């Protein structure tokens, strides 16, 4: 790189954030870290701020400001706290913001950065799913770039020929199939949070691990791909590839299929997004072709994993359905991790939310961030109510059978 790139990392304490720190530290001075943020982990946020020599650290929970200040006082690193502080920090001068806050909470900071013309390397797919058209419009207006960090979308980005956009037949997103690929419906019904978060290939946080197990992660990625690459649903396919060596493919009308391959290591797509348009060492392993086993592929089972069908349905119905799908899934996954509902009930919650939006809410498609947030909150309340009814019904059944 010709000069040091100024970067902020939103969500530095999670798996993406810590992998990004590895890439930055391996880059031999290619970056100046401006702002690092976290939700509530003061100790790790302070540790990462010190390690990366950041100028400022921001914690989302306001009551944690003083402990953060105390941890950083000896290092000359500024501290701030609160959701508004996160938004303001995202708009501070930088060349690139890495967006790795889990869930819908990342929307406002991403929008703030884009509106200031700051390029965003986006790792959290939920804001794109819930407000993709709004984010893309903000990027176009300011001239900022949205750079995909998700391994699948980063793979597409690397083999996408914009000059031949009209000659692209389709994009294929690969999926490992998750830990329950070969489980029966009966086995999945009894799945525990521990089993659902044990991914066979990737090291990820609990929420995205559960999404992988339900294949909601891939469903969200279908919507994300439609948004990032301006593709209709019929030009996006999903292919099960258990080895996770090929991360995505772009099929051209001349019969050529371009694929991006690599180890199952998030440092690779992170390094690509952080270094773009140049390339950086990731600190990860190189793919050794002679040591690979056979690469296998199969079509996904839409009946067994209904999340995929919900994604295509939501894309066809429009932005309100995408907001509902994401909001209901976030609430349901948390309820599953808290052991309030069973694994298969997660998708029941999503299906209910989509029906509510289509049938009962008569919801116009959100045209602003505020409207997206309002609908998101409405669906969360509805989903919590749906879960409460389900758990109460289950308790009543248990009482009657005793």
How would you describe the overall organization of this protein?
- By secondary structure, this protein is an alpha/beta fold.
- The chain has 3 domains: 5-149, NAD(P)-binding Rossmann-like Domain (Rossmann fold, 3-Layer(aba) Sandwich), CATH 3.40.50.720; 153-265, no CATH class; 318-401, RNA polymerase sigma factor, region 2, helix turn helix motif (Rna Polymerase Sigma Factor, Chain: A), CATH 1.10.1740.
- 48% of the residues lie in helices and 14% in strands.
- It contains 16 helices and 11 strands.
- The protein has a 7-stranded parallel sheet, with helices on both faces. Strands 9-8-10-11 form a 4-stranded mixed sheet, with helices on one face.
- Helix 1 (15-26) links the parallel strand 1 (5-10) and strand 2 (31-38).
- Helix 5 runs parallel beside helix 6 (125-142) and helix 11 (216-228) packs parallel to helix 13 (307-317).
- The chain is globular and about 55 Å long.
- It starts with a strand and ends with a helix.
- The relative contact order is 0.11.
In short:
The protein has 402 residues and is an alpha/beta fold. The protein is 48% helix and 14% strand. It has helices spanning 15-26, 42-52, 65-72, 83-90, 107-115, 125-142, 151-159, 185-189, 193-196, 206-214, 216-228, 267-275, 307-317, 319-337, 345-360, 369-401; strands at residues 5-10, 31-38, 56-59, 78-81, 96-99, 119-122, 146-148, 168-175, 236-240, 246-252, 257-261.
């Amino acid at each position: 790189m010709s000069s040091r790139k100024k970067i902020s990392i939103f969500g530095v304490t999670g798996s993406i954030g810590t992998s990004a720190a590895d890439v930055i530290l391996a880059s031999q001075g290619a970056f100046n870290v401006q702002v690092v943020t976290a939700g509530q982990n003061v100790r790790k946020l302070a540790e990462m701020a010190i390690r990366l020599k950041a100028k400022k650290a921001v914690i989302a929970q306001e009551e944690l400001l003083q402990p953060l200040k105390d941890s950083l006082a000896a290092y000359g690193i500024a501290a701030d706290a609160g959701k508004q502080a996160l938004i303001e920090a995202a708009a501070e001068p930088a060349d690139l913001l890495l967006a790795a806050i889990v869930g819908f909470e990342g929307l406002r900071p991403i929008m703030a950065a884009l509106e200031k013309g700051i390029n965003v390397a986006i790792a959290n797919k939920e804001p794109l799913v819930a407000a993709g058209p709004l984010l893309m419009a903000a990027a176009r207006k300011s001239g900022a770039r949205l750079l995909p960090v998700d391994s699948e979308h980063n793979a597409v980005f690397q083999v996408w020929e914009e000059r031949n956009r009209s000659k692209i037949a389709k994009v294929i997103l690969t999926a490992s199939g998750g830990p329950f690929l070969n489980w029966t419906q009966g086995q999945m019904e009894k799945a525990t949070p521990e089993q659902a978060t044990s991914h066979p290939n990737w090291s990820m946080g609990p929420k995205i691990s559960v999404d992988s197990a339900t294949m909601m992660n891939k469903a969200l990625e279908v919507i994300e791909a439609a948004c990032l690459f301006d593709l209709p649903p019929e030009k996006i396919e999903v292919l099960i590839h258990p080895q996770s060596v090929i991360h995505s493919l772009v099929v051209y009308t001349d019969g050529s299929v371009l694929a991006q391959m690599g180890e199952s290591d998030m440092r690779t797509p992170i390094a690509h997004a952080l270094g773009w348009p140049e390339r950086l060492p990731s600190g990860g392993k190189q793919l050794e072709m002679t040591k690979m086993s056979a690469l296998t592929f199969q079509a996904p089972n839409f009946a067994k994993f209904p999340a995929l069908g919900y994604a295509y349905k939501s894309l066809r119905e429009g932005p309100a359905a995408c907001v509902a799908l994401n909001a209901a899934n976030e609430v349901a996954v948390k309820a599953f991790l808290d052991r309030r509902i069973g694994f298969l009930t997660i998708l029941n919650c999503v299906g209910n939310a989509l029906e509510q939006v289509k049938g009962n809410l008569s919801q116009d498609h959100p045209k602003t961030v505020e409207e997206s947030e309002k609908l998101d909150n409405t669906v969360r309340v509805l989903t919590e109510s749906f879960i409460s009814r389900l758990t109460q019904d289950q308790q009543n059944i248990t009482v009657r059978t005793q």
